[in-house]
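INTERNAL AUDIT FORM
Audit reference: QA-55
Scope: verify that the stored structure record matches its stored sequence.
Auditor: D.O.
Record contents follow.
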Amino acid sequence: MGGSGARELAGYLLALGGWVSALAAAVLPQWRQSSYAGDAIITAVGLHEGLWMSCAAQSTGQVQCRLHDSLLSLDVHIQTSRALMVISLLLGFFGIIVSVVGMKCTKVGEEDPVTKSRIAVAGGVLFILSGLCTLAAVSLYATRVTYEFFRESSVPINARYEFGSALFIGWGATGLTMLGGSLLCCSCPPKERRGQRSYRQSQPSTAREPPVKMPSSPIRGEQCL
């Protein structure tokens, strides 16, 4: 396996790790957590909220979680982040399958290396799109949390929410997925190599057939004699 094959394998492993991290971020309920800023710090109960459930962790170690009751009653940013994360995971899943087919270290489609490289590039593009969807979902949610924390409100600071650990996992997943997809996109064959291959296929065979000896026809004068 040459340098390009090692680059493809490294990109695939990075993108796979990013996809697993995005899956963990989508499932975790720590998208936002209760803030401990302010003078009167309340540590008896810690509140966590994610895309699918909200949890309350007591100081004794007991954790109680509850799924969101209604989809339509949720805020717009939660619904949008949900949709973006689902799309991201689907794109990453298809990217995993397509990249396995297109990588040089696999035996599928070895007879056509140019097409195989293009399939690997398509897998890299899917991973990049998956990372962009994850980035959009996490950034949108983080923007909403930041807006609610700093806006003028009667709610005390220690009762507001701040960034949870799932947001940082999502940002890390974005970096891994897009970096791995970019490495897979570097598998595109150079134009010179593709041109040489097409020229060789279109070039006629240099082997010449032996000349065929035609029987010499008699002269008309000889025929008349």
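Auditor finding: record pair retrieved intact. Residues 4 and 187 are 7 Å apart (CA to CA).
Action required: none
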